[in-house]
């Protein structure tokens, strides 16, 4: 009888060790994802500053609008692809809320891109459309979440 209790205690200890290792590895993987996203955000911010400088040079030196629009659209595509990657990471995130700060930085980055694209549209004679949607991350209402998710995927179909 004593051996059976000992076997159960050993199984419990072994299970707790495996559970703790799994939990720690989950935290490690999630923090490495957040670090990767922070690097991506910093890279995007550098690209945006480059884009702002390009826009100022274009407006001051009368450089062609087609080049400016092409660069802006390329940058918008990069931001979109990185935001999609962020959504994939966020949907897999279970432990920490560190990705919320990354979301905020991407939202600011997209807002700056929107302003720069609006200025470019006003300065150039060519017309293009800017589609913007606003998203609330901390919403509990199912209908509102469904609408937000639907509108979130519309830019994919407008390309």
Description:
This protein is an all-alpha fold. The chain has a domain at 32-128. The chain is 82% helix and 0% strand. The protein has 4 helices and no strands. It has helices at 2-61, 65-92, 99-123, 142-158. Helix 2 packs antiparallel against helix 3. The longest helix has 60 residues, at 2-61.
Based on CA atoms alone, the radius of gyration comes out at 23 Å
SS content category: mainly alpha
Largest sheet: none
* Beta-strand percentage range: under 5%
> What is the helix fraction of residues, given as a range?
over 70%
The stretches of 5 or more residues where confidence is low (pLDDT under 50) are none
Gross morphology is: elongated
Number of helices: 4
Q: Average pLDDT across residues?
A: 75
What's the order of the H and E elements?
HHHH
Distance, first to last CA: 71 Å
- The count of strands amounts to 0
């Amino acid at each position: 009888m004593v051996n059976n209790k000992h076997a159960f205690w050993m199984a419990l200890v072994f299970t707790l060790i495996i559970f703790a290792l799994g939990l720690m590895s989950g935290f490690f993987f999630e923090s490495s994802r957040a670090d990767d996203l922070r690097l991506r955000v910093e890279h995007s911010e550098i690209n945006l500053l480059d884009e702002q400088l390009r826009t100022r040079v274009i407006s001051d030196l009368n450089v062609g609008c087609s080049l400016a629009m092409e660069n802006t659209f390329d940058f918008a595509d990069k931001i979109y692809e990185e935001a999609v990657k962020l959504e994939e990471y966020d949907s897999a995130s279970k432990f920490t809320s560190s990705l919320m700060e990354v979301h905020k930085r991407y939202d600011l980055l997209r807002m700056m891109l929107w302003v720069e694209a609006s200025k470019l549209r006003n300065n150039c004679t060519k017309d293009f459309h800017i589609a913007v949607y606003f998203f609330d991350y901390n919403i509990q209402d199912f209908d509102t979440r469904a609408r937000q998710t639907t509108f979130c995927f519309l830019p994919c179909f407008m390309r």
